[in-house]
Amino acid sequence: MDLLRRSIPTYTMDQVAQGIVSSQVLFAACGVTSYQDNNVRGLDVLQTYQQVAQQGQMALHAAVYYTLEWPQDLDRALNEIEYFQDDRMCFAGFKFLIDGQAPTAYCHQPHNGVSWNMPPGAPATFKQAVRALHDSGLQICVHCIGDAAVDLALDACEEAMNANPHPDPRHRIEHCILCTPEATQRMRDLGVVVSTQPHFLRVGGDHWKTVFTPEQMQRAIVTREWLDAGVHPG
């Protein structure tokens, strides 16, 4: 993303504010009354969300999550974010990204993408960050495409929850395209929510089969397995 940002036009906070307000009209037209933005990047964008709410421009209910992209983001998350809340908007938690899209899915077994065994930096550093943010009492969301990414996220959540138990933190796995049967049981036991999108299989179409092996495709978005196991989909 740093390479991309060097080339794309820089948006202003006025444009961000206009987008927050105008998108609500589209949501409402489709019958949506509340939404979550769990990929808010940059303190300036987060502060713009808060300003829109303070100005009374929120027509819908919104929960927003701050995305951590760099190591220094942990200091910002712990020391510079105001945990705001009013009757229309709240700061709900934090977002991590373990892997990217299918070609960079972090998996236990090789696939045909660009890379399959590359976590985002040191797993120990990720776990420490999850632990620190878990202690805030807010929800943590982790973007996971591959099954190894899911296991790393569950390891981090479990260690944080064991070190500082508090009731129903409802940490989340975002997307969860691939996971092992053992991960399904762990998600149930830990109370981790799976925020998944089964329509991704249709949207991606045959592209999935060009990246993942037939064996991996058998584990793609196993919604029925999660429901039968008692995992809560989001």
Blueprint (SSEs and pairs):
Elements: H1 2-5, H2 13-29, E1 34-40, H3 43-54, E2 61-67, H4 73-79, E3 89-97, H5 123-134, E4 139-144, H6 147-163, E5 172-175, H7 181-190, E6 193-195, H8 199-204, H9 207-211, H10 214-217, H11 223-229
Parallel strand pairs: 1-2, 2-3, 3-4, 4-5, 5-6
Helix pairs in contact: 2-3, 5-6, 6-7
SS elements, strand count: 6
Report the sheet with the most strands, covering strand number, pairing sense and barrel closure.
6 strands, parallel
In sequence order, what are the helices and strands, one letter per element? HHEHEHEHEHEHEHHHH
User: Any low-confidence stretches, pLDDT <50, length ≥5?
Assistant: none
Radius of gyration: 18 Å
Query: Roughly how many Å apart are the termini?
Result: 27 Å
CATH homologous group name of the largest domain:
Metal-dependent hydrolases
* Chain-averaged pLDDT: 94
User: Which strands sit side by side, in order, in the main sheet?
Assistant: 1-2-3-4-5-6
Q: CATH topology of the largest domain, which one?
A: TIM Barrel
What number of structural domains do the residues give? Answer: 2
**Helix residue percentage:** 40-55%
CATH architecture of the largest domain: Alpha-Beta Barrel
Proportion of strand residues: 15-25%
Helix/strand/pairing class, anyone? Answer: alpha/beta
| Shape designation | globular
CATH class of the largest domain: Alpha Beta
In DSSP terms (H or I, runs of 4 or more residues), the helix count works out at 11
